[in-house]
From TrEMBL:
One Pfam family this sequence matches: MotA_ExbB
GO cellular component: plasma membrane
Subcellular location: Cell membrane; Membrane
Gene Ontology biological-process entries: protein import
UniProt KW Cell membrane keyword: yes
Species per Swiss-Prot/TrEMBL record: Seonamhaeicola marinus
Residue intervals of the MotA/TolQ/ExbB proton channel domain: 101-222
Keyword terms: Cell membrane, Membrane, Protein transport, Transmembrane, Transmembrane helix, Transport
Residues annotated as signal peptide: none
Protein's recorded name: MotA/TolQ/ExbB proton channel family protein
Superkingdom of source: Bacteria
Record field: transmembrane: 41-61, 141-167, 187-207
Length: 236
């Protein structure tokens, strides 16, 4: 009986130790704790990267909505313009362009104001107006390219700072290597690197997506401008 009690007590102790070890192994670390464990330097760099992420997100959605609005145009718009021009109703064509708020309508309106002049002059006026429209579409998009390139470098700066802190703590540890001494610097190094790469990847994808969307609008502008010039060049 006493032997059985001793065995039961040992099993209970082993089970408790196993549970304690299991809890230690399963210990998790939240993102907030991971950031705060990196020290002041890591928190400053993470804060800068967070501001860049917010700026990149705002620019992306603001430009995306603006480009989508610029690409919307009535499929029958050019047919109506050509009918008005063919019938000599220049004022009606200009009024129609004024009612449609899009880059294409503004280009056509610029060309209509030059009707009667040589075709080369009309083409030049449309091209100049097109450059202004493209500049407006690409507003602040270059900032996304800057963020996509600068964010990883800022993250790597945090990596270097973290390694310097880890080496400094190690040098002051009196020769004894302990992970808790190195933890702060390593947290700074790793968290800033990950954050910088995340912000850089988001900025890079957002930039390229806006470039593709802008190119589609530019193609639409060129196609409608050529259609308008071809109509003016048709023999009467």
């Amino acid at each position: 009986m006493l032997f059985n009690l001793l065995i039961l007590q040992n099993n209970t102790q082993e089970t408790a130790e196993g549970l304690a070890d299991g809890e230690a192994v399963e210990k998790s670390l939240s993102i907030i704790e991971l950031i705060t464990s990196g020290g002041t330097a890591g928190q400053i760099i993470i804060g800068i990267l967070f501001i860049l992420l917010v700026a990149a997100t705002y620019i992306y959605f603001e430009r995306l909505f603006a480009i989508k609005a610029a690409s919307k145009i009535d499929a029958n718009f050019m047919n109506q313009i050509k009918d008005h021009v063919s019938n000599g109703k220049i004022d009606s064509a200009q009024m129609l362009c004024a009612q449609v708020n899009s880059p294409v309508s503004r280009l056509i309106a610029k060309g209509i104001t030059r009707i009667g002049k040589p075709l080369a002059d009309i083409n030049t006026a449309i091209e100049n107006a097109g450059r202004l429209e493209i500049y407006g579409l690409e507003k602040n998009v270059s900032i996304l390219a800057t963020i996509s390139g600068a964010a990883p470098m800022i993250g790597f700066l945090g990596t270097v700072v973290g390694m310097i802190l880890a080496i400094f703590e190690l040098a002051n540890a009196g020769g004894s290597i302990q992970m808790d001494v190195l933890a702060g610097g390593l947290y700074t190094a790793m968290t800033t690197t990950v954050a910088g790469l995340i912000v850089g990847i988001v900025g890079y994808i957002a930039y390229n997506h806006l470039v593709v969307k802008t190119d589609k609008v530019v193609y639409q502008m060129e196609a409608n401008s050529l259609e308008f010039l071809d109509h003016l060049n048709e023999p009467i």
